[in-house]
Amino acid sequence: MLRDIFSKNKKTYATIPVPSATDDVPVGIMTKCPNCKKIMFTREIEQNMKICLHCDYHFPMNAKERLSSILDENSFAEMDKELVTVNPLGFPEYVEKVEKDRRKMKMNEAVVTGTGKIEEKPVVIAVMDSFFRMGSMGSVVGEKITRAIEKADELHLPFIIFTASGGARMQEGVLSLMQMAKTSAALKRFSDHGGLIITVMTHPTTGGVSASFASLGDFNLAEPGALIGFAGKRVIEQTIHEELPEDFQTAEFQLKHGQLDAVIHRKEMRKKISLILELHHIGGVTE
Amino acid sequence: MTVELEFEKPLINLRKKLDELKLITQNADVDLTDEIEKLELRLHNLEEEIYKNLEPWDRVQIARHPNRPTTLDYINYLFEDFFECHGDRTFGDDEAIVAGIAKYKGRPVTVIGHQRGKDTKENIRRNFGMPHPEGYRKALRLMFQAQKFNRPIICFIDTKGAYPGKAAEERGQSEAIARNLFEMAGLTVPIVCIVIGEGGSGGALALGVGNHIHMLENSTYSVISPEGAASILWKDATLAKKAAESMKITAQDLKQLEVIDEIIPEVKGGAHNNIKEQANLIDTVLKKSLDELSKLSKNELVQDRYQKFAKIGQYTVE
Ligand SMILES: [Zn+2]
């Protein structure tokens, strides 16, 4: 059956101008799958929850796409939208870089937080956006996530976070590092109050984000193929002078090594989260 | 072993000259007292000038000095009857972290710290003070033990970072660090953290969620090493000196950013010049911290730590 799909689609390729088509796909209309290298209509991929029609590769989603794939329609109420980054270290060109992404992405920072419903069950949700400064965590990201956890605590709602981040935001130096402790402390307090924490690691979840809230769920879930790990693959290879296996630091690798409860296909994600919520009473808090 | 740091070269040259003069006075029968006195004054002034105006990169050099006192050095001077405990009870014993119980001014405490080696052989055994997950898990095990017996916890931070290795990833480096951050936040005993050398990234922070955080005057604490920052930001690791400035990694920077509580002064030229005296300088601050924190209830200790970290960060509302 797979072969059928491939051969059928081969005909479509012919209409794309050659020879640059394979390397330089016209932005917008067509998209090339980085995994199977096949070219598809962008619209088709979007209609398929941004999953490759051929190989099941999960394309990264931005925060808006993620929210609409998980939450009930029109249930989302955003929080702390107005928090914006300053330049605490006076780091050269930092403000300009953030401004550029703010304009491009039409959002203020690399995480969107708020309340919403999943199959009628209310939750507090945070979604990181890897298209904004690679989803890196600076003061605003740390503060918004902390406030979202505190909101979940206050409202006795489950806390769900979709992570997508290259790690700490270097331009905020040690303040960025400290957000790891701040968010983890908030989760600890929430957890001690019986709050339910679900983390979903999406591509990529690395560095300081993987070494803080992303790994602290009562349920640690991930999307297939997502890169998840602490140190960068290149750094490790340089340190140990050894080539790393192909699947190193993938979601499947982490599942095999006991770091995840489950790897869940994007099309199943909403249903599975809903099930977990259902198994934790209304609001996820055991009275 | 004498190690010459780059910014100390003028001092070293002057000291050499001074020694030569003294030798001449001894051997030949000439009186050079005037010259020697003059030179000594010049040396004194130059020392003052150099050590008072250290650049971030100079401090990085001091923090990395091969003779810089380690956790075990300070344990030796600050505590009595240290009893080291080994192992995470799951995988193994990571010697990049030492942990145990001891007496501090007669009172039982738990002491934990990163541990570098003094020579190559020890460094290999201790993995240059760069822990694997089992190191963090050993630390956490002993923190829970401290909580059970109501002992304060003292952490010495001194690592380039968590070890970037294959096995470390396989055993859950991320989770081990995250778990420590999470659990330390909830401990009901006083936690005092002291950065004594390099405080490198998540690997340092995993022992760093304290009620009080202090730094030695010439220690550093950063999200990434200056070399790492330079190679990512400017694709050039030789710009580490510039990165050390931009990244704001010195004790003075962290005090200004309101991340740490106190800067512990160092003996002239750096802690390695007199370990015993340096231990005394740490002792003063540690005692004050523990006295203050011992007045707080269990609940207050947890709240105090929560508030400390909750307010770290800078942003604005638009
Ligand atoms: Zn594909």
UniProtKB/TrEMBL annotation, chain A:
Entry binding sites for Zn(2+): 33, 36, 52, 55
One GO-annotated biological process of the protein: malonyl-CoA biosynthetic process
Pfam families in alphabetical order: Carboxyl_trans (PF01039), Zn_ribbon_ACC (PF17848)
Class of enzymatic activity (EC top level): transferase
Pathway: Lipid metabolism; malonyl-CoA biosynthesis; malonyl-CoA from acetyl-CoA: step 1/1
One GO MF term: acetyl-CoA carboxylase activity
Main localization, broad class: cytoplasm
Entry cofactors: Zn(2+)
Zn finger spans (C4-type): 33-55
This enzyme's EC code(s): 2.1.3.15
One cellular component (GO) term of this entry: acetyl-CoA carboxylase complex
Keyword Plastid listed: no
Keywords, in A-Z order: ATP-binding, Cytoplasm, Fatty acid biosynthesis, Fatty acid metabolism, Ligase, Lipid biosynthesis, Lipid metabolism, Metal-binding, Nucleotide-binding, Transferase, Zinc, Zinc-finger
All copies of domain CoA carboxyltransferase N-terminal, residue ranges: 29-287
Domain of life: Bacteria
Localisation: Cytoplasm
InterPro entries, sorted: AcCoA_carboxyl_beta, Acetyl_CoA_COase_Trfase_b_su, ClpP/crotonase-like_dom_sf, COA_CT_N, Znf-ACC
Subunit structure: Acetyl-CoA carboxylase is a heterohexamer composed of biotin carboxyl carrier protein (AccB), biotin carboxylase (AccC) and two subunits each of ACCase subunit alpha (AccA) and ACCase subunit beta (AccD).
HAMAP family: AcetylCoA_CT_beta (MF_01395)
Cited function: Component of the acetyl coenzyme A carboxylase (ACC) complex. Biotin carboxylase (BC) catalyzes the carboxylation of biotin on its carrier protein (BCCP) and then the CO(2) group is transferred by the transcarboxylase to acetyl-CoA to form malonyl-CoA.
NCBIfam families according to UniProt: accD
Family statement: Belongs to the AccD/PCCB family.
Name of the protein this chain belongs to: Acetyl-coenzyme A carboxylase carboxyl transferase subunit beta
Organism annotation: Caldibacillus thermoamylovorans
Gene that encodes it: accD
UniProtKB/TrEMBL annotation, chain B:
Pfam family, one: ACCA
EC number(s) per entry: 2.1.3.15
Pathway: Lipid metabolism; malonyl-CoA biosynthesis; malonyl-CoA from acetyl-CoA: step 1/1
Domain CoA carboxyltransferase C-terminal: 38-292
Keyword Transmembrane helix: no
GO biological processes: fatty acid biosynthetic process; malonyl-CoA biosynthetic process
GO cellular component, one term: acetyl-CoA carboxylase complex
UniProtKB keywords: ATP-binding, Cytoplasm, Fatty acid biosynthesis, Fatty acid metabolism, Ligase, Lipid biosynthesis, Lipid metabolism, Nucleotide-binding, Transferase
UniProt GO MF annotations: acetyl-CoA carboxylase activity; ATP binding; carboxyl- or carbamoyltransferase activity
Subcellular locations according to the entry: Cytoplasm
Lineage top rank: taxon: Bacteria
Reactions listed under catalytic activity: N(6)-carboxybiotinyl-L-lysyl-[protein] + acetyl-CoA = N(6)-biotinyl-L-lysyl-[protein] + malonyl-CoA
Record-linked InterPro entries: Acetyl_CoA_COase_a_su, ClpP/crotonase-like_dom_sf, COA_CT_C
Keyword Zinc-finger: no
Family designation: Belongs to the AccA family.
HAMAP family noted in UniProt: AcetylCoA_CT_alpha
Complexes and interactors: Acetyl-CoA carboxylase is a heterohexamer composed of biotin carboxyl carrier protein (AccB), biotin carboxylase (AccC) and two subunits each of ACCase subunit alpha (AccA) and ACCase subunit beta (AccD).
Job description of the protein: Component of the acetyl coenzyme A carboxylase (ACC) complex. First, biotin carboxylase catalyzes the carboxylation of biotin on its carrier protein (BCCP) and then the CO(2) group is transferred by the carboxyltransferase to acetyl-CoA to form malonyl-CoA.
Protein name, UniProt field: Acetyl-coenzyme A carboxylase carboxyl transferase subunit alpha
Source organism of this protein record: Caldibacillus thermoamylovorans
Gene: accA
